[in-house]
Amino acid sequence: MLYTEMTKKALRLCFEAHKEQVDKSGMPYVFHPFHLAEQMDSEETVCVALLHDVMEDTDYTAADLRAMGFSEAVLEALCLMTHDKAVPYLEYVGQIAHNPIARAVKLADLRHNSDLTRLETVTEKALQRVEKYKAAIALLERA
Description:
There is one protein chain. This protein has 143 residues and is mostly helical. Helices cover 64% and strands 0% of the residues. The protein contains nine helices and no strands. Helix 1 (5-18) runs parallel beside helix 3 and helix 3 packs across helix 8 (100-113). It is globular, with a radius of gyration of 15 Å.
C-alpha cells in the first residue's frame, strides 16, 4: 500500500466509518477495504479501495469527502462505485467499467467477495451471489 497524506486520511476515515461494522461472517468489516487497498498501486486506487463502501454503508456523502480534501478523481470513482439500488446490478457494473480507478477496485472487491472461504457457512444465497459476481468480473475484464 502507498502511504501518502491522502491515503493516510483515507485509512483513518475507513476505520472510523466502518469500526462498528462486521461482514457476512462476523469479522470486522474494515479488514475488507484494507485487503483491497493492499493490492492497489496508486494513491487514487488505494483511497478508493479504502473508501469504496463509505458512501453506500454510512452517512458520509460525496460532499463530506470533498470537504475533507479528497480529489475529484477519487470522488468520481467512489460515486460510480456507490450502487443506487434503482439501477440494475450489471448496468451499475457497466458504468464502473469506463473508469480505470473504479474498475481496478471493483475487480478486487468482486474477487474478495467471491472468496467463499471467508464465510462460516456457504449457503445457496452465497453461491448465487458468486455467480452474479462472476458475470460482473467478466464484464469488467472485457472493458
